Amino acid sequence: MAENPPGTGLRLPDDVPLVRKIGHELIEFLPVGVYLCNAAGHLTTYNPKAAEIWGEAPDLGKEPIRYTGAYRLRSENGAHMPFEQSPLAAVLLSKKPITNLRMIVERRDGSQVPILANIVPLFGMDGTMIGFMNSIQDLRQHAAQEQAQNHLQNALMQAQKMEQIGKVGGGVVHEFTNQLTSLSMSLSLMEREITDNGSEQLQARFALCREATDQVTRLAEGLLLFARTRPRVLERIDPNQLLLGMSTLIRNDVGQKIDCQFDLASDSNFLRANRQLLESAIINLVANARDAMPGGGQLILSTFNTLLDRSNFMHHNANFKPGRYVVIRVADTGTGIAPEALEHIFAPFYTTRAANKSTGLGLTMVRSFVTDMNGQLAVTSRQSQGTSVSLYFPCYGSEHSLAITGSEQKPER
Ligand SMILES: Nc1ncnc2c1ncn2[C@@H]1O[C@H](COP(=O)(O)OP(=O)(O)O)[C@@H](O)[C@H]1O
Ligand SMILES: [Mg+2]
To answer: pLDDT for 58-69, tens place per residue?
Structure first.
């Protein structure tokens, strides 16, 4: 009997029950499907993972089964393989291993599992072939991992694109602000004369110019901060006072049909942030809530303290540190967000509104700001019931709040 060349198969004792015993114990808990067949191609043992892939557990106590390794075995391109054409038959004939062969296991119910097969012939002590061992790897998880990897890759590319847009946009916005400053100064010079001597119509038109210029200036400043081309000024902020200070503005913004409530924790901690950006984040969230309640509803602005650790928080930001946080929450009783839309709402330019009505940058800016403040953001939403957006800021004075990059606001004299 010819010796099998080394490295091309396993040499095992010529004792089938022993092989079965060793095989069984070894393979029972492997995360890959493993099964053994004897020299006639009859199934002698298999592990639970193999049965899971096959979708059935062949009864070894009955007639010997010449199992192809599936109810139906198919090649990677879908062609049916009867036993005679299967790689198992090829191994029995050639006595050579087959490595990394992609195939499809078709189950009795018609469902299919892509697998990667590795078949090794088994030899007895005298060199005769006593069967083979086939390990089958379930590729479904692999496919899911590949998909997740692609998803990450896309997200990364999107982030890099945004960074590029941010850099280019930053330069353009600088140019805008310079021009806006001179426009604004000219308007200030004209203002006196127009209010003193101008007709009513001229005054009204002037007011429109002023308002539009101020709005564009605010927008440009917001974009500049977003593009991170300016050093940030940080302040110690009482979130309750901040919200109460904005209450008139918020009530005017949402109108009469929306009932506005403030639910502020009396012991609320301070936070450390850029005031202008925090205000603009809240205005953005309020505007979204307002638009989600066209027929009216309830807007609830709340503050509270909380302790975050890794277990109780799905952190959106890799920079997450457990500790004490103060939360500003904007909740509405509006339309809610569809589950499939939830993962997109922070993407730049994502919007469900008419193109000329919005930019789709609101939540992008809010998230970018919260991340910059070493904070966290959580959204919960139920369709037709409402949405709640919570901004988590590390408490003022905590190590995590001290680590926010920016310069401290000098106390005014
Ligand atoms: N409170 C909310 N209720 C329902 N949908 C919301 C809410 N906030 C945000 N959205 C959805 O997220 C999208 C993106 O919001 P945003 O980034 O602020 O851009 P924009 O407001 O310009 O559309 C909105 O178009 C809307 O579909
Ligand atoms: Mg918005």
So the answer is: 888 878 888 788
